[in-house]
Please model this.
Amino acid sequence: MNWLAWIPFLEPINWFHRWWYLLLIPLAFGISVAYKAIRVPNLNRYWWQVAIMTTQITLGVTAIGIALALFVQFAIPALTR
Model:
């Protein structure tokens, strides 16, 4: 791909499509840092709470994704019978 002719919103970067789900980790970390900076009354355990919240977001989104995949694979075909 010629990088000088690349149009960002019209032509996606093809080499990144296999690992797009890994962006969940920095996204969850950024949300956790911002949220905990506002909500934590004492900054002694700030990074520990950020790590816990990052893990919770990552596991929650992963669980929702698995549940949705199972629903699409099994529940929707069962409804169409």
Notes: The longest helix spans residues 46-79.
